Batch of 3 targets.
Target 1
Amino acid sequence: MIVDARHCFKLLQSCHGGQALQQGKRLHLSLLKSGLLSSLYWANRILQIYTRFNPEDDAPDKLFEEIPLKNSFSWNTLIDSHLKSGRTELSVQLFHRTPLKNTFSWNLIISGLAKANRLETAHQLFEAMPEKDPVAFNCVLHGYIRHGRSREALRLYKRAKSRPWEDRFVLATALSACARSLDHRCGAQIHARILTSGVEFDAHLGSSLVDMYSKCGVMDGARASLEAMAEPDEFSVSSLVLGYADRGRLEEAIRVFERWYKPEAVLWNSLLNGYAGGGHGLESMELFRSMARGGVAADSSSFTAVLAVSSLLQGRQIHGRAIRSGLIEDVAVRTSLLGLYAKAGSLKEGLGVFEEASSRDVMLVNAMIAAFADDGRVDDARGLFEGMTERTGVSWNSMVVGYAKNGFPREALELFSEMLRGGVSVDGVSLAAAVSACAGVCSLRAGEQVFALAVAVGLQSDGVVSTALIDLHCKCGFPGAGRVLFEGMESRDLAAWNAMLSGYAANGLGLEALNLFEKMRLRPDRVTFLALLSGCCHCGLVEQGQRLLSAMETDFEIAPAAEHYACAVDLLVRAGKTEEAFMFIDAMPVKEDAVVLTSLLRGCRAQGQDSLANQVAERLISLHGGEPGVYLQLSSLCAGRGLWDKSLNLRRVLKQRKIVKIPGTSWTD
């Protein structure tokens, strides 16, 4: 058979689909026989086939080295192959060897390294680029943003002063960095540059401006940017709707929504997310129904948004609708359903959702691990974790967090160490869980080591990590160090305030807790008031504690829970007001528990009020007679009063009823 160029072209055309590599090898052999492989065109074609269909093999490298006169296409093809197969170091080495570097070569290596999170190397190469190109610059900016380093992207943008950076794609990327870092001032400066530089104001730039202003909460700027667009797209309108809704300005969100002719699912979802983000469950459900009445098919985003704020009953209804629509097999919808059932205390139904899945995506398994952990079933969670063929950072985090919050700090730290040894990337969640575990064993030294790791990976300013560190220092008896950390935080959420207030309370610094509360500008929650009441208890601040309990309902519309009433009782008992405490218990809207009654009993015994003590003891046994701590507390109190016979009888009852007390444990650093 005669092998000529026509035959080779036919073979080249057949190099596609599953047989591409085999056909490519046949073509390679034919070219060798015909002598056509000496042609740079054919050599590059074979190189292209090998790099596309068999990049892991060393055939592309061998062929490349055999090409006598390589051109830019040859070099770029192999560099691109190494980048796509994750061999970034080889691609950099090959790039430095390249004698024919053109703009495409620079853009190729810089974009590939940015995608692979080799941001420092990509940045260095960009700085070495003889003629800076907007494409390369945009790739570096995108890389920083994609990997959570938006502020660094903005710093890089601000340092650039050349005219090419007035490219509209670069400007849109810079606006995205402003949106991610909530820097509306820088965003406004970029907006001004757009207006003064003569850059074409297209839909992409307009959408980026609306999104930036909306996320930063500058709603007038967002609306003005939308109105400046010749033809606003649905993404822009969606950003504006969500921006209004996220800030509780629902009426304005609805007005924008209603102005849009026949809104599609994307716009409906923005409004749904806005209602859900504000905790408006009933309104979200009604909007979800209106969507169906309007003939708009709900998608997975619609279902996940409404499930986030649904009650158990509503969740069951949505579950049925997801089955009817066929979206039940969507992993996001199934995961949201599982989360709803678990949060509502119906883990059995959540487990059913998990077990009915036709395929168990890693996201779904992660949700089941978290659900088991939230229910205290850490062994079941660990069993699922160990059975995973593929684990993500979320998988590890769910397990570490599960151990930490269920009172297994040693296991949490052991798993965290295993996570590090396995090369799994840590984030704020895993670091905060590890710090919390250190607090669980009162090991300040271990906590500082975890913080050193946080500094090494650039997460020392993470709010969750900082809050966990405050908690650690306070639990280890160093509230002053906790306050220094608290004051050093860039922004403090409610969790940070609660950690500091609880730390002061646990260390007997009730006045400091009250003074700090006066400076708080966030709306408090139940945890805030529990910390303050506890601080009042430790310091005997009766009047302040009573005012706080009253303010919960009158000023903040927060109904006190059993633990708040327990603090109020303890406060009265410590102040010697046992009869007032007894009357307060009778008037409480919640049922008293053993802790409350034991606290009152101890106060009665200490003040010699035997008659009242006997009443409390009888109520304690009748209500909580199955708890070992009740008998032990009563026995100890009797022994302290010299009533040895009664103390012995109580111990005997405990033994006869086979009520076993779990022995306590203690940690020291």
Note: The radius of gyration is 33 Å.
Target 2
Amino acid sequence: MNYLNDYIADYARVPSNEDLPNTQMLSDIFNTESVTENMVHVKLKFRQFTSALRRKKEISSTVLSESKLIRCLSTLDLTALGIGSTLGVGVYVLAGEVSKTTAGPAVIISFLIAAIASIFAGLCYAEFGARVPKAGSAYVYSYVCVGEFIAFIIGWNLLLEYIIGSASVVKGLSTYTDALIGKRMGTYLNDTIPMNVDYLADYPDVFAFFVTILFSTALAFGAKESSLFNNIFTLVNLCVVIFVIVAGVFKAHPSNWTLKKSTIPDGYGKGGFAPYGISGIVKGAAKCFYGFIGFDCVATAGEEAQSPQRSIPIAVVSSLLVVFLAYCGVSTVLTMMLPYYLQDTDAPLPHVFDSVGWTIPKYIVSVGAMAGLCSSLLGALYPLPRIIYAMSSDGLLFQFMGKIHPKFNTPLYGTLAAGVFTGILAALLDLDRLVSMMSIGTLLAYSMVASCVLILRYEEGKSDKKDEDSRDLTLINVFKQMFNTKLKNPTSLTARLVMIQVVAYVLWCIGFTSTIVFCEKQLQNRESWAIGMLVVFGILLCVTLMSIQTQPTSNVKLTFSVPLVPWLPGISILINIYLMLQLSPLTWIQFTIWIFIGLIIYFCYGIFNSNERYTNIASISSKNCLVNNEKSRKISYQDIKLNEANYVPKIAQFS
């Protein structure tokens, strides 16, 4: 088949209409001294390479209806999955820690701010879940909207999030169980098989390893069966939370919210409702935000939901609402039962009930904590094999990991492999140094989903009415279109303009939040240059969102749409970037290493085995057949002094 037609039309930028140059002109192009055969070859290879990075996944209605996974999860199942994977750390650890060290009784406000930020991200997830109800969560969303390379990075980050999240939860479950039996298990393992290695645990946590394998096996047996166990754990968890709130009311003392400074020990603020001030509330909100991580696992179950377009938005919003009410109620009871500076940072609920002399409620809370952590472990492990399945099915990861078992209808090998790897991490590693890595991948995924919502809302859809606008993307046309007053339907110009504005908005967010984080002292001292930078970036943020708002939106009908676009996704991006900049330099170094490993896998395997590559090859072959049949484009290539054999085999290398 003659592929040189496409090379000339697509890469040498030769017009394809009647103005197509003659053979002599083409010969002159390729025989000039400034353009050698090697330069043309490099140029073609580079364009093929960059085109491969921008490949998008096409998901038709037929593909959406076809799935090897069983659609067996109801809206209640998805809601319970979201609650179970989220409601855990915030209730049993975070409320006591933040109230004692960061926010005081105002931890309730911190949870409210974190909940609002999470709901913003959750609404963006809900719209994407309605658009693309496929397994894979933000990975699939970014693959459809942005391109293959960014999608792989997002998927690789999600793997990091769920692996470390699962390992930390099972480690907490092991520690909690050990505490209930008087730390006998830990003492025995430490005396028998100690490990004296930096960055590793004191001893191999055999219990954590086998619990992870047990839960992974349960997930491998089927989504419906594992969902049943998760529903039971979640129900027990919610019942214990309600018990804590109701029982705690009888021992609540509102005076603990109005403590005077003279009664507060040194190092615990100024007393009152907000002893650490507004800055403490904001910093507390940054910590409390991580207590809401986990709801995105609902979106990963899109292929197993009975009615994903309806169930996913309801489940995401409902689970976040229930989790916030639980956090708010428990925080209120905790800080009213016991002064904030007397809270225990490791196990606040048992400590509070023990302090008031209630022994039986202490053990009831312990049972609830076990159920909550088990539910969180299921919620953390559940999306991990689904992401592996989605990426391996697309050819970006090793395909054997995505094979569906014919009996259980689950990605058996991917589930067990993920469970074994997570169990090894939980058994060998001291996760205190790695737990913050869970957040960086999550926040990046949240930001990407919010950006994709903006881009898709303003893209030119196939069903949209067409406005007569043939303007190219030039500087003058962009300037004229910055604040749209004429067009009512999106065009290629407005769609590309919005994409550029979204990228610019992310840059303004980085500048704005960097000024707040790294120039905090200068802002407190009211230095003019710091305030000026903050004002400039703030104006750029507002102007960019105002410009996006004036652009025509797509007419595609969705079962759920994010309200207040572009402001709500824009605020979500701003908050996520701010929280990412709060992470330590060590976290960024570890994150860079993880990304480097992922890049090796992608450029050595994924880019060559991607399903979209073969789709593009088929498209190119079809296109060549059409070109060769067009009589109007008869050209003799005998005079072109390029060896076609050197180029034709390369067509499939990156396409």
Note: Confidence is low (pLDDT under 50) at residues 1-35, 625-655.
Target 3
Amino acid sequence: MEHDISCGSGSEEVRCQGELRPEPSPDLATLLQFKVYRRRWFILLVLCLLNCSNAMLWLTFAPVADESARALGVSLDQINWLSLVYMIVAIPLSFVSTWMLDTWGLRLTLILGAWLNMLGSVLRFVGVLHVMDPPRRFPLVMAGQVVCAVAQPLVIFSPTKLAGVWFPQQQRATANMIASMSNPLGVLFANILSPLIAGSSGDLSTLLLSYSLPATVVCFLATVGIRDSVPPTPPSASAETSNSEPFLQGIRLLLQNRAYMLLMMCFGSAVAIFTCFSTLLEQILCVKEYTNDFAGLCGALFILCGVVGAAGLGFYVDRTRKFTEVTKVNMCLSSLGCSAFAVFSQLRGQKVLVAAVCSLFGLFGFSAYPVAMELSVECSYPVGEATSAGLIFIAGQVLSVVYMVILQALTKPLADSPRSVCAEGGTLSWRVPVLVMAGLWCFGTCVFVCFFHTEYKRLRAEEEAGGKKHNTTISTIAQTLDTAHTPDTKDIPNPSDTNDPSHTLNTSHIANTTHTLDIIDRPNPSDTHDTSHTLNPSHTLNPSHTLDTSHTANTTHTLDTTDRPNPSDTLHTTHTSSMAYMPNISGTLDTPNTLA
């Protein structure tokens, strides 16, 4: 009787003791190394709500600048500072925020940001209550804005960090897109809700109460729901070394990285123009008889189209990894949209064209933001995600302050503009500022397209690490399967045996072994049991046994025979694979060899 044992990594199947075992696959090796957790989606949801709430608090007053100035008894320039303070506060605190994210972790940073966001919103609401003296209202509102501005860098730097440490490689760009686009969604809601609430009630207290409620809910969710900064098992190879470089060392490496510095300046300029566009849109359009409601609609289209475009680009980049190509194409197309806005915004009665160019500007410009953030991580790896994305944000904030000051300085008062719908003292000519804004965008785009080139360092590191770990894991699994199926054969003599039962056959099989044992015994009555035992290597055993063993793989047999049975000897050999041979008295050795 014959039975085959095939135990080896070279075959498609591992067959051991009657069982069929599949060969370890690359997917199995990956599962043994990395794991994803469903709670990553809850953390992403909390971050999206927090990012959206903070953006709503940032641009609460921009769509209703005229009404806010009248209610608080201040000028339009002071109302603009309620938005501009975000950029000023973020510049020094951004370095601290990036250090906190890369050192303290995601959990503590998000919880701190949620509490600051809630406290700032409540302080703003208290500042506009009727019980407050009018001279104290604006300082309290400004103090609330400052507290919310402190929370912004803690929140806005988190998308790349969350995507890097909680999401697998094929979901990172999508997760980053969802978290990043929640910020412009907050701007969208502010552009829609602020004119509706402030216009219907005519009271800022209702408006600010409406914005403080979501901030309170998000603070509760973040405090109670976020339990860990990183998952127990990393989702990818790069997540294991997410903080491989210390903060100061990471800053030094970024400043020495030519590709990163070029991306930081060009896309930081784009972020600054986005900020100026969102903040000044209502003041630019009111001069040409466009109402605040229409300005809010244009801002909403700008953001909504950007979110739709970012969703498509996120899925596309996750599958193609074409970060550089997508960013360059989108910046070129958005430069056309910005230039068109500079022209059509200075025309009266062109609502369709103005709304269309705002939509196109957002579709191609805003949608590139999450892709550019992922690109910053790819070209700066192994620097931490928060550090690489944070410096671009800092550059955007610094340039936002510079651009806002320049653009406002370039405006000219209009002595006669009877058809203007701007508030008293707010009728300014924005013709030169919008042309300068378009020129800055086009210049940054040209520099980026012509000179930016980089390799994707994080993807390359993951491929190298994944290949090494895959080979190591496959080798370990194969060795485990091989050693788990090592037959051990021992001769156990019959109790009637009068000889010394020291006949031991130890067979060590090392994987992929086809073991066929055929023993034929043909002694005559006068046989003195001169045994020829043929085994690899060759052994001699009396009586004349012919042991023919064929091995198809690495097999080491050790046969130690000190037993010389007499004709009356009955020798039972128990093999772990059920092998027994029994010589009879007549000298005919009948060996039922069973190997299963």
Note: The mean pLDDT is 75.
